[in-house]
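User: What would this chain look like folded?
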Amino acid sequence: MTDITLFHTSTCPYCVQAERLLGRKGITAINKVNIEQSATLRDEMIARSGRRTVPQIFINGEHIGGFDDLVRLDQGGALDPLLGL
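Assistant: Here's the prediction, encoded as structure tokens.
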């Protein structure tokens, strides 16, 4: 099973798009971490990704990046293997 973590906020349209793209791939088990109300979770996201923007996506512990990075992986054919598809 693929482990996916999605750091997000509730108002981020790119977060929604990232979740939709993964859903189209049949991925429904996503560990969604809302960083809006927790400085600790925001700090964790920044420490793990080196970035301050959302979404930040991790697949099997590997930092993928944000939504644009996820789309590039998909368009380049590299996303399916990461997802085990």
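The mean pLDDT is 96. If you want, I can go into more detail on any region.
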